[in-house]
Write a structure and sequence with these properties.
With 106 residues, the protein is an all-alpha fold. The chain has five helices and no strands. The longest helix is centred in the first third of the chain and has 29 residues, at 2-30.
């Protein structure tokens, strides 16, 4: 759940950055003073910035939070209650589902 929220925030950031670049370039072009090479460089620059921002999702820390709790439970370092608590912290929708259906996951 945390990964999907992070990805959603990153997509919104990328849309804002790209939109801001394009808005500035269009406004500058409408004044008639934007040279074509500078417009192309500005557009490609915004593409590079958005791409580099998207690469932040590849960091290991983004992927390891919930996986670490599951791996520790498999090795016996966490009991079931501790695992449920760790997963509930990372995935709050699971605790709601457990209580709603009465399967004891809470």
């Amino acid at each position: 759940m945390r990964l999907s929220r992070t990805a959603r925030r990153l997509v919104i950031q990328n849309l804002v950055v790209a939109g801001a670049f394009i808005a500035v370039l269009v406004a500058w072009d409408l004044t008639g003073t934007l040279p074509l090479p500078l417009g192309v460089a500005g557009h490609e620059g915004s593409t590079v910035v958005v791409g580099l921002n998207g690469l932040r999702l590849l960091r290991e820390a983004v992927w390891t939070d919930s996986r670490t709790a599951v791996e520790r439970s498999r090795t016996g370092l966490l009991d079931r209650a501790q695992l449920c608590s760790a997963l509930r912290h990372d995935r709050p929708h699971l605790s709601r589902l457990g209580r709603k259906h009465g399967d004891g996951f809470h």
